[in-house]
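Here is a typical sample entry:
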Amino acid sequence: MDCDGLKKVVVQDLDGTLLGTANATAISQAEFEWDGDPARGVGDYRIPVGLRQRVDGTEIPAEEKFPNKGIVRDSSCSFVTSWRAWRCSGLRHRMLVLESLDADSLVRRLSPVALIANPGPDGYVDLVNGPMDHGWCLGYTCQRRISTFYSVVAPGQVYEVAMTSLPPQELRLRLLHSDPSEVVLLRLFYPMTQRLDVYVDGAFVPPTNVDPDTYPESYQLFPEDPDDPESFYPTLQDTAGSNYLARESKFLHVVVRGGNHSYDIRTSPVVVLSLGILVTEDDFYEAGEVVRNVALLLNVAPENVRVTDIVREDSRSEEREGREGREGKRRRKRKASAVVNIEVEVSGAPLSSLQEAGHAIGGDALSYDDLLNRLGIAVDCFQSLGCGANIVSLKVKYPVAPPDVPELRSQNEQFGALLAPGAPLYSDRQLHLEKEELDQLLQGEVFLRPSYVEVMQEPPKVVTTNEVFRVVVAAFTENGTKVTSLGSKGYPWMLTASLEGGPPEARLQGSTTVPYSQGQAVFSDLVVDTPGGDYRLKFRVTSPENAPTLEVTLEDTFSVELDL
């Protein structure tokens, strides 16, 4: 795509001497070569998928949402051929800046960024590519490009905005050279609905669905009203920073007013737990009880836990009792049971301010690492039966990890390898990897309870004293299904190998304790240091401390010969 220097120009005539009307504007022909020269790379196909699809995944025809291309215009606009620009007297165009404050803002590609003004049959779509690459270490592939996007908008309009990859976790917005009466309503698309905190000039602005009776002592949000899903939507008449996250459509609605304000949107990591709990017909789970139990399990304040769904699935179990009479008449006694599926979110409390004096509002401040630590406790509790056998299922959706600080070097083999003919651009490969990561996060991970472990790859029958050999162990459920994960992300269960038989002075060397990952524990560099026979290997789960007894000993022995 072309860089934005010539496509995102706005000129404001303050007194009418240039454009003939006071406060008229001239704007670039941003739609130049739209669906035209393929080398320009501009067309509907470059619009991020989140703006081209409905909630159910079906495609939205362009004529229904964005039939017009370029910067928004109205009937007062006329095209000046010699300028290759539009002159508008009825709209006061302004510059809206979107800036990533993430640590990887120089190397992570967010563009093209799409803005759809007034989505519908009269909508306009514009694409923002950002500035040119300014890294020259190994040519274009270095991709050192600031993630600051200058878009042209018109106050009084509603805009849907989406980026090609995951939006930054720290996003700053500014409406330049405007006064407080000028306002736009942004609907920012976030494919992964974490909690999004909005700050105006560093001060926290609660969403429109916050419970006013408990805020700020507590941070509790009202759920979306299914009969009136737009009841919490902010409007153009609302104050600066008014916001609401529409979870179904995944749009964050934010009111952006002029007046030299800065708007910061911070992504707060959220863990989603889906629990299946077996209950009798007399049991009933209330949201308050669930919140207390989950908070106790994770060692967090109840204000950090929010129940998002409780669904009871009825099931019947039948027990046969005795026989009566010579005809073998059976009596059946029905005992009602049900699985209650409960979904909860756990996140840190928002900060009152981005300044050092800011404090958590209603709950504990929890970082990404804090959440992973507490999630590890919950997973261990489930898989070890420490939480009780009535919890029959557990599914987890992990939070989005904070970006890593990139290593910027003038010479980098990873970038250099991309110089080969036909090799993909670094940005394209990065987008592909991010999409895979997003798909995994959205899908979540289902955890199973282990019942036993088996050796999947045994050592050779004969090895030498310096020979490295490999053994693979896997865990299975009671019905024989392989367990993909023991422990959660960052806190895997550990298995330890030990030596039995052979001379008493023999020692097992190498990596004798390894994590369980991707459905197996791989002991890749085991060595026995002493010649001998009748050796056996024993494998058992040694971490966490509350893990159930899971161990297996090889039935077949092996021998070790002296390496000459």
